[in-house]
Design a protein that fits this description.
GO molecular function, one term: protein-disulfide reductase activity
Shape: globular
Strand order of the largest sheet: 1-3-2-4-5
Number of strands: 5
Number of helices: 5
Distance between the termini: 55 Å
CATH topology of the domain at 17-45 and 71-122: Glutaredoxin
Protein name: Cytoplasmic thioredoxin isoenzyme of the thioredoxin system
CATH architecture of the domain at 17-45 and 71-122: 3-Layer(aba) Sandwich
CATH class of the domain at 17-45 and 71-122: Alpha Beta
Keywords: Disulfide bond, Electron transport, Redox-active center, Transport
Strand content: 15-25%
Domain Thioredoxin: 1-124
CATH superfamily of the domain at 17-45 and 71-122: Glutaredoxin
Helix content: 25-40%
Largest sheet: 5 strands, mixed
Organism: Komagataella phaffii (strain GS115 / ATCC 20864) (Yeast)
Structural class: alpha/beta
Length: 124
Amino acid sequence: MIRNVRFFSNTRVVKQVVELNGMAEFKKSVLQSKSPALVDFYADWCQPCKAIAPIIDKFSNEDAYTKKNIKFYKVNVDSNEDIVMEYGISAMPTFGFFSNGDISHKVIGASPQKVKESLDQLSQ
């Protein structure tokens, strides 16, 4: 007889945030896509970037955004200076919101509430 057996559900979040490397990947995935996109401009040394990353991973799995086909990307500012210069990224994290290949607006700083509000606008 088995006693004291406990079952745990697997609540692991599947990461759907894709890292882009180089302008060619960025153009193909973001600028030439018809899907709306959030781009997380981050740096490995940035503590606020590290703190908000799991929240962005969680957003990338929410039905409200996956059903609207919103794509989630991240760009390392230290290895993609051409993209950083093109979009005037000067603080990390910065979140760029793209629709039909154009940037509609940015959220500067690790504010989950502001990112969520912007995603809600993007999904309309």
